[in-house]
Write a structure and sequence with these properties.
By secondary structure, this protein is mainly alpha-helical. It has one domain. It is built from 2 helices and no strands. The mean pLDDT is 94.
Length: 93
């Protein structure tokens, strides 16, 4: 593997990690708001509130799963595009 290919793959990895972090942070924030809203609704109905373990952790797990999809899509697309470009360059040399 040539140095430019390694650099391109490294940059795709960095992009995928940044997108994962941004989307996960946003979705975890929204999950926090949803958890608080559900806690208020349970309290208003006189029902016991959920623990963070039971109420919030599943929301964060789902957020991580959705963010991981973006990470994998970017890595797959970037790796595929880099491999295609490297092969075309090799064919023309």
């Amino acid at each position: 593997m040539t140095r430019p290919v390694k650099l391109a793959l490294g940059l795709w990895l960095v992009l995928a990690l940044v997108v994962f972090n941004v989307t996960f942070d946003w979705q975890a924030r929204l999950a926090g708001f949803a958890f608080i809203q559900s806690q208020h609704a349970l309290r208003a109905q006189g029902q016991p509130v959920a623990t963070i373990e039971d109420g919030f952790r599943p929301l964060v797990r789902d957020a991580a799963g959705r963010s991981s999809i973006w990470l994998l899509l970017i890595l797959a697309g970037g790796t595929g595009a880099t491999a295609l470009a490297a092969r075309r360059i090799r064919l023309h040399d």
